[in-house]
Amino acid sequence: MKKAYYLSTCSTCQKILAQISNLESFELQDIKTNKLSPEDIEEMEKMAGSYEALFSRRAMKYRGMGLHEKELKEGDCRQLILEEYAVLKRPGFIV
Q1: pTM for this structure?
Q2: Residue ranges in 8-89 assigned as alpha helix (H)
Q3: Rounded CA gap, 92 and 95, in Å?
Q4: Which tens digits make up the pLDDT trace of 52-76?
Q5: ω into residue 91 within 30 of 0, thus cis?
Q6: Which positions ≥6 away from 31 have C-beta within 8 Å?
Q7: What are the CA-CA distances from residue 34 to residues 6, 11, 64, 72 (Å)?
Q8: Who's near 54: CB < 8 A, 6+ residues apart?
């Protein structure tokens, strides 16, 4: 199964998805309207090697939530991704 996690309001996601020639072969999941499940996050973590690798420190929410002032651990990154979709690096692909 091929899956793409994206944010429909993100212009970068839109540009990247537009460049994929066989996009119809992917199951698309807009993480804003269809929240990530713990199973989704765990599957991505196994492939990426850590939750921190999935965590975006460039997201506007990162500074907005004051996270730049905190020392985040693996468990913190996992919980924040589950609670706030905007801190997931995106788009994310499972091939």
Answers
A1: 0.85
A2: 11-18, 38-48, 60-64, 74-83
A3: 10
A4: 999 999 888 888 888 888 899 999 9
A5: yes
A6: 5, 6, 7, 85, 88, 90
A7: 10, 18, 23, 25
A8: 41, 44, 45, 48, 77, 81, 88, 89, 92
pLDDT digits (tens, 9 = 90+) for 11-52: 999 999 999 999 999 999 999 999 999 999 999 999 999 999
CA 11/CA 4 separation, integer angstroms: 15
Judged on CB neighbours under 10 Å (0-12, 13-18, 19+), 65 is middle
Enter the tokens of residue 35: 């929240």
Counted residue by residue, the chain has a size of 95
